[in-house]
Amino acid sequence: MTTAMFLLKELSRADIDFFRSLVWDYYAVNRREFVWRFEPDPYAVVVSEFMLQQTQTERVAQKYPPFLARFSSWRSLAAAPLADVIIAWQGLGYNRRARFLHLLAGRVINEFDGVLPNDPCVLKTCSGIGPNTAGSICAFAFNKPIVFIETNIRAVFIHTFFSDRDDVADAELLPLIKQTLDENNPREWYYALMDYGVYLKKQHKNPTRKSKHHTIQSKFSGSDRQIRGAILRQLSLSVAKNCMLESLFEVLSDSYGCDPVRAQKILDGLIAEGMVSRVHGGDMICL
After folding, report:
1. What is the pLDDT of residues 29-80, one digit of tens each?
2. With contact defined as beta carbons under 8 Å apart, do 287 and 235 qualify?
3. Exposed/middle/buried for residue 75 (C-beta within 10 Å: 0-12, 13-18, 19+)
4. I want to staple 207 with a disulfide (CB 3.0 to 4.6 A). Which of 30, 71, 159, 242 is the partner?
């Protein structure tokens, strides 16, 4: 195959077969074993997909089993207080995902009779689920041949078809993903693509830097994300899941150098999102 293939409207049958063999052969010997890959139950799949958004697999592998043990079904998650879900989520980062997952559980129970829809268009109406997450859920939970892209898949297609290009748009990759998709076993095919993408990132300078959508994550230390996490962690450490506002600001100042004005702005954001609440006339914050 040549790097000019992206100019073609369609790949040849021989090119598709060659590419699939390349990916399947690698996967047959080097597949990664994760517990969520052995649990195609829709609920378990959704939990893993939410966790894997912007969090490394090694960390998810540690947090996924105890989370499922604590919240074993849509019903148990929907019935749990949000505070308990946020506490169980600690260590994964991006805590609003815990709230989105909790909201989704409520919708599944109250609107969908306890059954997760297998239509990506319906899934995209749920908070925290974009087109690619909707596609991955349908592929992994229902083995449906839905086209989607994520960072490791992106690496495979840029490396294979666009090695001499920069600023490659996902719109150029998606037709190739569709043409090469193994519709007989999309679940395993996407696992194979992801594993091959991880390998390519280690063997070559990350191919995704050639993506038009590539961004460098901002520094975590001292960021608003760190302060948000610190606020939720501080509340989760309390038996009552609450904290005096004055004490909270003192901790943020001493430990993170966060002044009260900035702390209040970040706290207001958490309150607006429904992550925390003011109680006792506003002098206390609680999960």
Report:
1. 999 999 999 878 999 999 999 999 989 999 999 999 999 999 999 999 999 9
2. yes
3. middle
4. 159
